[in-house]
Every structure is written in C-alpha cells, then in structure tokens.
Specification:
By secondary structure, this protein is an alpha+beta fold. 37% of the residues lie in helices and 20% in strands. It has 28 helices and 34 strands. Helix 20 packs across helix 21, helix 21 crosses helix 23 and helix 22 runs parallel beside helix 24. It is globular. The chain starts with 5 loop residues before the first helix and ends with a strand. The structure holds ligand ANZ and zinc ion (ZN). Ligand ANZ binds next to strand 11 and strand 15. Keywords: Aminoacyl-tRNA synthetase, ATP-binding, Cytoplasm, Ligase, Nucleotide-binding, Protein biosynthesis.
C-alpha cells in the first residue's frame, strides 16, 4: 500500500515553495490584497506548542484566502529587544545580540519546517538598526506633537528586574514578567500621552464589534474606564487655590463631611501642618509598600492620618477636615476626594474608624448608614440637601447640583478616564535608545532625523548587570556628547524604550520592508491595510492591542494612514495544556514540539491542533491523538493512488451521488472556514474522505471522474492544515505543483440539490403513503418519516409495529401487531 513519508515530504516541499516564491505576494494590484498577520514571536528558545497552535490557525486563514484568489501577505519577523536576552547575556558574559540572533535562527528554521505559508522576504527584527532607527523617528514625531513628555512621579518599580513598569505591566501588584512585588519609586520618566486618545479608543471600538472577541473589547473598555461626574472645588483655609476633587456623585455633596487626599501625591505634602508632619511622613512610607490593588480593596482595613488642614464645603459652608489615606490614589482624578460616608462604603469605613461624622442625604431604603454601617447607593429621596430635598431621581439631582456649582463657579461637569499615560522609559540596555540629548542650557533636545539611529553602545556581560540606573549610564563615552543646539557639553538620555513601543508599529513596516524614506511607505500601507485577520494570544488584550491602536490613531492624525483601526478581525487562540493543566517545568508536563513533529510529522501535529476544537478553546494534549491524525492522513493519501482517471477527464460525467457529496463539502467547508470554525471544516473533510473511499471500493470505482474531483478537493481542503500531504496528493493526481497555487472551487448549485425518490409505505400489502425521501435515507429515518404520516397512523389505528421490511429507498413495509 502507498504510504506517505512525512519527513521526506517536508523537505521536498519546503524547497519547492522557497524556490517558487509561492508565498510572496504579487503586490502588483492584479488581485485583491489581503493581509493576514500573526503576532510576531519573541525569540526565547525554540518554537513551542503554543506557537505551533497559533501559527497553525493563522495559516488556515492565509492559505484559504490565497486559494480563494486573493494576493495574500502573511509576513514574519521578530520582537527581538527585551529583558531575557539581557539577563542571558549577563549570565553568559556575552552580548544580548548573540543570544537574540541565535534564537531567531533556530526559530526561523522551525518555522520553515512547520510548513507555514510565510513571506520571508519581508522579515524584520525590531533590534535591527534599520528598524529601531524608525522607532526613534516615530518617538521624535510624537514628541513634536506633544505626545511624548517627561515627568517626575512615583512609578512602578520592579526590584528584581531593576526597572520601571507601565501600569499595564503590573498584574495584581506584581511584575508581569518575573512575579516580584512591585514597589514605587520617584523618577523622571518619559510618557506617551495615550490619554489624549482615551475617548477615541473607546468610540472606535464600535468599528471592531463583531470582528474582535467581545471579552477583549470589554477588557479594553474597562481599562480605559470612562466615568462621568464633576469637578468640585473646596476652598482651603490659608491657601489661595482651592482643592479640586473628582466625583461621580456631585448630588451627594451635602453629605460630604471630610476630604481625603492621596498620601503620595503633591497635595498632602503641601497641606500637612508641622504638628502632623512626623506621623504623616511615616504613613507615606507605609503607603509605598502597598500595591495599588491592596489600596483599592474594600476589604482592606482603613488607615490614614489627619493633615491638620481644613476646607469649606461649597454648598453649605461647613468646615471639613482634610485627611490623607491610601485608599485615595495619587494618579486618578485629581488625587483628592470629597468623602461622603453615608453613600460610599470606603468613606463610611474610614469615618467609623476615625470618628468622623456621617450624614445621610439620600433615603434609599429607609435605612441610615450611620447606624447600619452599610453605605447606601443609587436612587432615593434626597434629604438634608437644600435645593435637592424631595427630588427622587439621581439624574435630576446630579443635573441640578452641577448647574448650581457651575453658576457659582465652584465646579463643572466632567469626564474622567481610568487610563493613565503610557510610561515608556526602561532602565535596561537591550532596547531602543531614547533619541534625546539633555543640555543644561537647552533642555531636552531631540536628535535630528539625519542623525538617527542613535545606536546602542557595545556593552556586554557584567556591564549590563542591574544597578538601579540604566546600564547605558555606564558608557560614558557614549553618554557625553555635544549639545546639537549650542555645542556645549550635554548627555544622552540613558533609558531605552519599553519593547511595546517596538511592537506598536511593526505591522506597518511589513508593508514596505527596507523602505528608507520613513518607517513605511504610506502608499503600501494604503494598499495592504487594515489587516484582514490578526491572530494572537489573549494575554495582549490590553497591552499590545491598546498600544498599537493608539499608534495607528496618531499616524492617522499625522496623515500617514487613512483608517481609524489597523486590525479588523482578531482571533485569540486558546492554549495548549496537558492533563488539564498549563504546561510547566515544575509540573513536568511539558510537551516538546520538535519531538511531536519527529514522531508524527508536521501535518499530523497541525491537523491535531486544528481538529481538537474551536480555535478559541484550550487544547488538552492528553486528550487528542496525533497518531490517529496521521492514520487519517495516510488514508487520504492512499485515495490519491486509487484515482484511475486522467487530469483531462470531465467531472460532468462523474457519479451523481459522489459529486453531490463533494459539492456539499465545498459549500460547507468554505462557509466554515470563513466563519472561523476550522475544526468542523476538518470533520467535513474527513467525511468526504470516507465517502470517496466508499465510492472507490463499493461504488462506481476509482476510474469514475467524480472520484478525481473529490480527491482534488480533499487535497485543497487538507492544504489549509496539512500542507505537505496535500502537496503529495496533488502531485499523485498528476497535477502541476503546487496545490497552494490552485484555485478553490465553488460549489455547483445544481449539484447541491438533494436527490430524492418516492418511497411507498405499505401496511399489510396495501400502499398507505407515498413519501419523497433522500436517496441515501437510513432505515431509522425512513421509519420515523412513515410513522409521522397521517395515513399510516390511521391505518395502524393504535397498533404497534412488530416488524419492518425495508427495501430502501423505494419501499418500506410495516407489519402491525394484534
Ligand atoms: C463622592 C462620592 C459619593 C463618590 C458617593 C462615590 C459615591 P469611578 O467610578 O471609578 O470613576 N474617587 C475619586 N478620585 C479618587 C481617587 N484618586 N482615588 C480613590 N477614589 C477616588 O470612581 C469615582 C469615585 O471614586 C468618586 O466619586 C470618588 O468618590 C472616588 F456616594 O465622590 B466619589
Ligand atoms: Zn545646549
């Protein structure tokens, strides 16, 4: 029997695709373009099972669109700056580039072996000079537009990695990378002003609905966190300017009995009186050890200190004390709140602990929070609230009080976002240098475009060890330069950029690789983008996927791109797990991709990944069987050897029944792949293989043209998931290579009609019904249909059927009991 040799097929077809440039797009406008993009890999070690799954998914889409006649771009590159390379270089006393580019070569080889339909001619690495030159160029443009700025503030600090982290990189109070508890440090750092785009990032999500998973949109919406409310000004005794608070409930202002400011913000330090200073300073130290999550938790025992300062409630003239407490965050709203203990649980817990007054101003359910200790919220009847008394509607209360505040000049309605500006400085070496020179006289001078890239100095090994300052600061020859403006002595910025900056624009670069006039050619981007399908892990739901949307909007405002959203469709593949758990070293349940491929071949491994379930679901490797995938592929391959007709044969002469099955498969599989149901498409392909095998062995036989037609489509459908065996089948059929260059068929509507015949139903020799049934009807289905017929029921008259004689599809005879 014929048997396909998966390893030999792999080498043969890799060479063919490379030589044929099968997967390089024509890019000449002769076909409609489609851009299919996988999130580019980080070069940590070799490819693993997770990569294998994600890229197998992207390849289904890319190969499908190619066969459908589109000019498909499916590029690959590496996100090659980052900490692991630096840590490896410190350990091995080498340069991070060595580790990085070695790993890239290993991964590139594995990608090729894995049979992905990638365009290698557009390959990029974010750590290449001709890439990071343009990252710096973009930084300069952002700076010109006021979207890159420096400020001094408390930032998230990872004590292990010795670098700052963006808010998005702090997960449950820990460093997203190494899991260390994140602390706070006061540093002068660079930020991107993503908050300028908060509203647009929110609004444009309507363009992504349907194309992106709902939960990703929900996560972004929460992260952006839009709140409507008001700014209210409280005059402070002995201070010229009032304190401004942000509140979502200005209608509760009559119940504001004290104020609270963030201990670690500038206000508290300024307001505190000498009498309270020592206690306050101790409290600030304590605060810094708390994570943001702990601080916001309602479970947390409330702590705080009085500042000795007092303010005036603008609506009733009451004198209220000002406290500092860690539950108020320095960088949300204004870093100060009006405390309304009756209607905010945190304020109530605080008031009860420190004996501050509680005044109920909304009767929600007849209870008094001062007595119950439970704050009430929502609609109710206002009381103790001057002009609001008697109103029962929250919206009306908010509107009324906001109007009054505005009229008196004590406040204004406003919108607040949870989203913070993006902190992009990192005190690490292996990243894109920030192209700024600091001069005592001229301030921040951005390096001129012609001087880019600002190259990394040549540091290695122990020179990179974390010291709490950037390793670049140690490269004094590199740091000390002439000020480009005044020629005086100046210093380069010694921080590098967050690697999420690199990955915020790589997909533009793919459109015009090697372009030297800018980061990309706007014409190429106009041709290829937006991306038709983006594939990658859900762990990027807020980091990368928010940042790249922000970059695209800035580029749009610069006139370089014309769309609001760069990625129209997003697929988040599930994870590959083993025995119900994520694979990990400590559990010892890791599965090695290379070993799986050695044993079963690429095709079987990929088929297993796709067939396991819906793309979004996790795959438990303990519950799937690459061995049976391989068996199926061998079955499909053997079919090709049983095709006895020649390529010139006319399918119209083929067996009707098999043609019907084939064309039904074409229609269904097309629709299934289009709607992302890849696993079901594979199941349909398996059914087609079975039907064809039957036709060969016990039907019209291998010489029938319908068999050739069926096997050709089997090869095309399989090429999306098992490309090597698909090529082998195609070749065995005597067709010119490659199946990847073939055209996906369209189903012939006339062949889709179900063939039917008339089935007569007899009872005791008499015809009781004539029913239209499919030619391939089963006895079970025929009996069910017959029993549902009114004439049959009348004739049976309540008697049960004791015997069935079936001569299908033409006749069904029923023998009733007594
Ligand atoms: C008075 C008030 C009364 C409040 C009431 C709520 C209920 P969101 O919805 O998340 O925007 N707040 C304002 N700034 C804060 C900060 N920097 N740290 C901690 N809390 C802060 O929350 C807005 C509400 O959170 C604001 O409305 C304020 O408390 C508090 F019955 O003001 B509210
Ligand atoms: Zn200068």
């Amino acid at each position: 029997v014929a048997h396909y040799d998966s390893q030999a097929a792999q080498e043969k077809w890799q060479a063919f695709w490379e030589q044929d440039k099968t997967f390089e797009p024509l890019d000449d406008g002769s076909r409609e373009r489609r851009y299919v993009l996988d999130m580019f890999p980080y070069p940590s070690g070799d490819l693993h099972m997770g990569h294998a799954e994600a890229y197998a998914m992207g390849d289904v889409v890319s190969r499908f669109l190619r066969l459908r006649g589109y000019d498909v771009m499916h590029p690959i590159g590496w996100d090659s700056f980052g900490l692991p390379a630096e840590n490896a270089a410190i350990r091995a006393n080498t340069h991070p580039a060595e580790w990085t580019y070695n790993n890239i070569e290993t991964q590139a080889r594995s990608f090729k072996r894995y049979g992905l339909s990638l365009d290698w001619s557009r390959r990029l690495h974010t750590s290449d000079e001709d890439y990071y030159r343009w990252t710096q160029w973009l930084f300069a443009r952002f700076h010109e537009r006021g979207l890159a700025y420096r400020k001094n503030s408390f930032v998230n600090w990872c004590p292990k990695d010795q670098t700052v982290l963006a808010n998005e990189q702090v997960v449950d109070g820990r460093c997203e990378r190494c899991g260390s508890d994140v602390t706070k440090r006061k540093l002068n750092q660079w930020y991107f002003k993503i908050t300028d785009y908060a509203q647009q990032l929110l609004d444009d999500m309507t363009q992504l609905e349907g194309g992106w998973p709902d939960h990703v949109l929900a996560m972004q919406r929460n992260w952006i966190g839009r709140s409507e409310g008001a700014h209210v000004d409280f005059a402070v005794e002995g201070r010229e300017t009032p304190i401004r608070v942000f509140t979502t409930r200005p209608d509760t202002l009559f119940g504001a009995t004290f104020m609270v400011v963030a201990p670690d913000g500038p206000l508290a330090a300024e307001l505190v009186t000498d009498e309270h200073r020592a206690a306050f300073e101790a409290y600030v130290e304590q605060t810094k050890r708390q994570t943001e999550i702990q601080r916001q938790s309602t479970e947390n025992e409330k702590t705080g200190v009085p500042l000795g300062a007092f303010a005036t409630n603008p609506v009733n003239g009451e004198r209220v004390p000002i406290w500092a407490a860690d539950y108020v965050l320095a960088d949300y709203g204004t870093g100060a709140v009006m405390a309304v203990p009756a209607h905010d649980q945190r304020d109530l817990d605080f008031a009860r602990k420190f004996g501050l007054p509680v005044r109920n101003v909304i009767d929600v359910d007849g209870t008094d929070p001062a007595e119950t200790g439970i704050a009430t919220s929502g609609d109710g009847t206002y009381l103790n609230s001057g002009p609001l008394d008697g109103l029962t509607d929250k919206a009306a209360g908010v509107a009324r009080i906001t109007e009054q505040l505005q009229a008196d000049g004590n406040g204004v309605g406003t919108v607040q976002f949870r989203l913070r500006d993006w902190l992009l400085s990192r005190q690490r070496f292996w990243g894109c240098p920030i192209p700024v020179i600091h001069c005592a006289d001229c301030g921040e001078v951005v390096v001129a475009d012609e001087q880019l890239p600002v190259r990394l100095p040549d540091l290695r090994g122990s020179e990179l060890a974390p010291k709490g300052t950037s390793p670049l600061a140690g490269a004094t020859d590199w740091v000390n330069v002439e000020c480009p403006k005044c020629g005086g002595p100046a210093q380069r910025d010694t921080d590098t950029m967050d690697t999420f900056v690199d990955s915020s624009w790589y997909f533009f670069r793919y459109c015009s690789p090697g372009y030297t006039e800018g980061p990309f050619n706007p014409d190429d981007v106009a041709n290829w983008m937006p991306v038709a399908q983006y594939v990658g892990g859900v762990e990027h739901a807020i980091l990368h996927l928010l940042y790249m949307r922000f970059f695209s909007k800035v580029l749009r405002d610069m006139g370089m791109v014309s769309f609001d959203e760069p990625m129209l469709k997003l697929l988040n593949q599930g994870q590959v797990i083993n025995q119900g758990r994520a694979m990990s070293k400590s559990l010892g349940n890791g599965i090695d991709l290379g070993a799986q491929i050695d044993e079963f071949g690429v095709d079987a491994v990929r088929l297993t990944m796709i067939f396991a379930g819906p793309p979004e679901d996790d795959i438990d490797w303990a519950e799937v069987s690459p061995a049976s995938s391989l068996k199926f592929l061998q079955r499909a391959f053997r079919l090709a050897h049983d095709v006895a007709s020649k390529p010139e044969v006319d399918f119209a002469d083929g067996d009707k029944a098999l043609r019907h099955v084939t064309h039904k498969s074409i229609a269904e599989i097309t629709q299934l792949v289009e709607s992302g149901r890849f696993n079901v498409a594979v199941a349909r392909t398996m059914e087609l293989v079975n039907a064809t095998r039957k036709a060969v062995d016990s039907g019209p036989g291998g010489a029938d043209p319908a068999v050739r037609e069926a096997v050709m489509f089997v090869a095309q459908a399989l090429s999306l998931v098992a490309p090597y065996v698909a090529e082998e089948i195609w070749e065995t059929l005597g067709l010119p290579p490659s199946v990847a260059n073939s055209t996906w068929p369209t189903a012939d509507e006339t062949l889709l009609v179900e063939d039917s015949v008339t089935m007569v139903v007899q009872i005791q020799g008499k015809i009781r019904a004539k029913l239209e049934v499919p030619t391939d009807i089963t006895e079970e289905a025929a009996l069910e249909l017959a029993m549902a017929d009114a004439g049959v029921q009348r004739s049976l008259d309540g008697r049960s059927v004791v015997k069935v004689i079936a001569r299908l599809p033409k006749m069904l005879s029923l023998v009733p009991g007594k």
